[in-house]
Amino acid sequence: MFKKLGAFFAEPPAAEPIQDVQKVASMYKHWRWRIFYSSFIAYVVFHLCRKNIAVALPSMGQALNLTNTQLGILGSTLYVTYGIGKFVNGVIADKSNVRTFLPTALILSAICNICFVLSALFVTPGHISFFGLPSATVLLWLLSFFWGANGWFQSCGFPPVAKSLSYWFSNSERGTKWSIWSTSHQIGVFASVALSGIVIDKFGWMAAFYVPAIICLITGVWLFNRLRDKPQSLGLPDIEKYNNEPVKEEEKDEQADVSYVQIFKKHILCNPIIWMLAISYTFVYIIRFGTEDWLVKYLVEVKNNTLPIASAKLSTLALVGSAGAIMAGVISDKLCKGNRTPVNIVFLCLLILSLFLFATNPTGKPIFEVLDYVYAAMIGVFTAGPQMLIGGLCAVESSSKRVASASIGFTGIFGYVGAALSASGTGFFVDKFGWNGAISFWMIATVICVVICTILLIFEKIRKRKAQA
Questions:
Q1: Regarding the domain with residue range 26-244+259-462, which homologous superfamily does it belong to in the CATH classification?
Q2: What is the pTM of this model?
Q3: What is the mean pLDDT of residues 343-361?
Q4: What value does the mean pLDDT take over residues 44-55?
């Protein structure tokens, strides 16, 4: 059984190289587009079973009588398992078949969402005890278990996509393609928030979990038909060879007889740039998930918004934020000539300003409501840029594409440590110091990230001077 399971997920061998130049060109054109849109849709749909909890928090907390701290602990379980899983599954994805690995993860994530809802149906808070424990405690543990398991399978989504983008697009085009693809995150959050808001309003908070699960199950089957692994598995040449581009120094190990462990050690474990990127990514995720997961609750409790209006404002953050990822990619390519760090610093400084304006914007007049949408959009734009660059494109460019998934997974560990801190930390600060304490928590995290990126910029300049010397 295990042998068959391993064969199902194993990376397919290289097919016989196709010699017909015209056929190679035709197949590359077809498969590059197919891989790109399939990966894009896959990651959008992944978010339906991940960000749904952000909209469900107010209704779910009230229905199950959970405190903000308990909701924060519940939310942090996904981030802990996601962070660990992103690294472990990143290493696995480097040697696995994208076609089977990614759809299976999406289907299992959907099953976890269904089990999450069933837990609340079969165990309701009350006076009944299970094994000497209050039913409310048992329910919180069950919810945390299934949400944590969901985080593990969710972590299987990004690594195979990173592998696909690295192998199907060359260095000269990867930045643009990556930035466009990265908008799938913001669109996914928008779709999840919009869908969850609608179904909760019509059918209750549980619908925010079982409706997206059904969509994910259908999409998982469709992806198995759409996706393929490396170009070589179809008999196509390496993308750099096809585009007649020079191979980067970091990619020469790909063509040499060097083991995966040696490449992993050289380009990840012993790479100081990867470490600095990973540490800064921790603080990017504190602000990213702080706003994504708690903004609806903040707007309902502090600004007295209805759930549909609060969801619409969060949707603006996600949807308009997708422009920030594209802006960051294009600006760093065109104006900074591939230097991503200055763009990260500028975006993060503007993010601090956006948070301040959003928190200090009063209520009571229509113009203030409009400004809430504007400031939420600004938060989305200036978060999406560093989120896409620091833990994604920068990590891949600072390593080898043979460990592309692992490099994403490595920075992801640190990112989801930040996400876990964001979930539990935000809940703690709200309970102890009110919502101003939570806003301050997010702003301080952003300031620390600016400091780390500044150190990284100085390090990069020193390293470049030594290389020139």
A1: MFS general substrate transporter like domains (1.20.1250.20)
A2: 0.74
A3: 92
A4: 89
